[in-house]
Every structure is written in C-alpha cells, then in structure tokens.
Design goal:
Helix content: 25-40%
CATH topology of the largest domain: Rossmann fold
Number of domains: 2
Strand order of the largest sheet: 1-4-3-2-5-6
Radius of gyration: 19 Å
Structural class: alpha/beta
Largest sheet: 6 strands, parallel
Number of strands: 9
Number of helices: 11
CATH superfamily of the largest domain: HUPs
Strand content: 15-25%
Order of helices and strands: EHEHEHEHHHHEHEHHHEEE
Shape: globular
CATH architecture of the largest domain: 3-Layer(aba) Sandwich
Length: 284
C-alpha cells in the first residue's frame, strides 16, 4: 500500500492503471475510519483491481462555526485499517493542493435537492461536496465509487451530479453500518459523552417506531413525524434539526407513506449533529 500526497502523482498512477486495463474502485472519505468505511472498502476490493481510498477533510463543505478544525484526524491509524482491508493507494492531499491560490471553480447541483434537509441548515455544504467529489473523480478516474447510505441526501446529490455531467462512474450506495445497539456509525460519535451516547440512541428508536407505525397501518406522514418529534424531544440534550418523510429519489416531502418513502433525521445531541435514515417499508 502506498500513500500519495501529490495530485499529479495520483492522477498519473491512476491513468497508468487504466491504460493497463485495471478497474479502479474508489472510496472517498474524510478519514477517522470506522466499520462503515471499512464495509465500503471491502466491497470496493471485490469490485476493483485497484482499490483507492481518499482521506481529505474538505474545507469547502464546512460552514462557519462547524467542526472543521476539531474533526478527528489520524492518518497513521487510518492507514493501518486501510492496509488490513486491502487498499492499494491512499490519496491524502493537502488543502492547498486541492484548492490552490486563485481557485474559482465550483460544481453546484441547484434546486430543491440541495436546499432542503441538510442543505437548509448547512448552506453551501453540498456545493463543497459536489465540487470535491468532481475533483476527486477527475484525479482518480474511477470506474466505480462507493458511498454510505447514512449520508442519504449526499448520495442522492452525487447520483444526480454524476448523471447530469455524464461522468463515467458507477455510483454504489452501501447500507448503514450500526453499532450493536443500533446507533449509526459515524466519525462524529467520538464527540459524545457517555450520557449523550445513550441519548443518541433515540434516532434509531425513532426509526424503529416509524416502521412499527407503518406496519400497523399508519400512512399519514405528518402524524408519524409528530410522534417521532415528541419521542426525540423527550431526551434532555437533543435538539431537532429535521425529521422528514421524503421520496427516496427526489427528496420531496411525502404526505403519505409508500414504497418510495424514506425517513430522514438530523438531531443535535449536545453540540454534536447526528444523522440517520431508513426506508419505512421493506425493500427487496
């Protein structure tokens, strides 16, 4: 396994691999790897001849007063985990190389898809995401890129961007990986105190409750959301950003639950913002 810092060197390595007929699988991350990331890498190992992991805490997707400076970073730790699952190349560029002096170009998926949910509370976030992913795709030139479904809106936006720009990359979404008690794995879970960690389980409990209500015949989204908000607000250190039932592809709010419905949650527990989601009806 090799760690590459240079944009030009990374681009050349991947171009050479493509010319040799190798299939490139790519997993972009911000590091502080956990089992969710490792599940993406294992699937990438299965799908590609060359497995590339990027580790880059992207400054353009963080807003003011967010956790860019405190976001956990440990390249040595991440490299050891990556080596164990068979990563071939780690791309770990510096921000000054990705966004050099005079940088002026951004990629933006416009419209409702990026202005609702996380887009409403984190203006500019998805412009940063789509810009860095486009740059990474240009540098790594992958045949397939793997993303976790925990960031459901991000995955939908990246699918839209990839289709709209005719990028020759297969986008694969992988299921959420959870702790044994149901908490969705996240690099930000490290911020939680023991008591906040206990309260954070309310996100998964809310998802389970929504599925229970739907299985029992409830289909009115507003009534279901009202019940879930009351459940979440009962925990003393929680503050709801959003609880919505949306169409899985368009992210438009749905008045009635159907097979395309997904529950999307964003909740602050203390100062830590956590997200979770899940389909409300069984999927094949």
């Amino acid at each position: 396994m090799q760690i590459i810092r240079s944009v030009q060197q990374m681009q050349q390595r991947c171009l050479t691999a493509r010319q040799a007929g190798k299939r490139i699988a790519f997993v972009p991350t911000m590091g502080w790897l956990h089992e969710g990331h490792l599940s993406l890498l294992r699937e990438g190992r299965r799908r590609g001849d060359l497995l590339v992991l990027s580790i880059f805490v992207n400054p353009t997707q963080f807003g003011q007063n967010e956790d860019f400076d405190s976001y956990p970073r440990d390249l040595e730790r991440d490299a050891a985990l990556a080596r164990d699952v068979g990563v071939d190349l780690i791309f770990a560029p510096e921000a000054a190389d990705m966004y050099p002096r005079g940088y002026q170009t951004f990629v933006d998926v416009e419209g409702a898809m990026t202005s609702v949910l996380c887009g409403a509370s984190r203006p500019g976030h998805f412009r940063g995401v789509t810009t860095v992913v486009t740059k990474l795709f240009t540098i790594v030139q992958p045949h397939v890129a793997l993303f976790g479904q925990k960031d459901f809106q991000q995955l939908a936006v990246i699918r839209r961007m990839t289709a709209d720009l005719n990028l020759p990359v297969e986008i694969v979404g992988m299921p959420i990986v959870r702790e044994p008690d149901g908490l969705a794995m996240s690099s930000r879970n490290v911020y939680l105190t023991d008591e906040q960690r206990r309260q954070a389980l309310v996100l998964y409990r809310a998802l389970c409750e929504a599925r229970r209500l739907v299985a029992g015949g409830r289909t009115d989204s507003a009534g279901i959301v009202e019940s879930l908000r009351a459940m979440i607000e009962a925990e003393p250190e929680t503050r709801i950003d959003y609880v919505e039932i949306c169409h899985q592809a368009t992210l438009e709010r749905q008045r009635t639950v159907d097979a395309d419905s997904v529950l999307l949650l964003a909740v602050f527990v203390g100062k830590t913002r956590l997200i979770d989601n899940g389909y409300l009806l069984p999927t094949d």
